[in-house]
Design goal:
The protein has 5 helices and 7 strands; from the N terminus they run H-H-H-E-H-E-E-E-E-H-E-E. The protein is an alpha+beta fold and about 190 residues long.
Length: about 190
């Protein structure tokens, strides 16, 4: 017990005298150096100075540098070039599904997916994975391809089955838009 008291006292003493500032701050001088002022340099003679013409700043829109603004690439067309097919062309499924939009999938990745969901302007709004309950019950590992788009939020919900994925499964929805923007695929 006596050793514990001595150790605690030493630790307290060291804490009182130790400098716990950031290590770079420990090496800073206690008093900042006084700034030195230099005498202004003599100006060159007037005949040797170059004459430059100053152009007034133009702040009107007509004189601003024009930048080319290209619209973003059509993400749906890119998906189709990469082998994605419209789910409604593969199975008896509506072309536009309220809540998810136009859904595309690579047929060889069924039933897991990824399923790409687009709004009416061909913007990717969500990526959906459909995980069969049987795979969850069997503790099966499954890996889907990642998404290049940032994910705002995730929804997970149960589905009894539908055309294309008839067995009970969970939808894991990676939303690439905010909850407020999610409403644009609701109708």
């Amino acid at each position: 017990m006596r050793n514990a008291l001595v150790s605690a006292a030493l630790a307290a003493l060291l804490a009182l005298i130790a400098d716990v500032r950031h290590s770079a701050a420990q090496f800073a001088p206690l008093f900042p150096p006084t700034p030195q002022t230099l005498a202004p340099a003599a100006a060159p003679p007037a005949e040797k100075t170059e004459r430059t013409r100053t152009v007034p700043h133009r702040s009107t829109k007509a004189h601003r540098k024009r930048e080319i603004v290209r619209p973003p690439a059509n993400q749906r067309k890119i998906a189709e070039k990469n082998g994605y097919k419209r789910v409604s062309d593969l199975v008896n499924f509506p072309k536009f599904f309220p809540g998810l939009g136009f859904i595309f999938v690579k047929p060889d990745t069924l039933p897991l997916g990824p399923f790409l969901c687009f709004d009416r302007r061909d913007r990717l709004v969500a990526t959906v994975y459909m995980v069969p309950i049987k795979d969850i019950d069997d503790h099966k590992s499954s890996e889907g391809t990642g998404s290049a788009r940032p994910v705002d939020h995730i929804s997970i919900y149960f589905n009894l089955g539908h055309p294309g994925v008839d067995e009970p499964h969970y939808h894991v929805v990676l939303w690439h838009v905010t909850r407020k923007q999610e409403a644009r695929v609701a109708k």
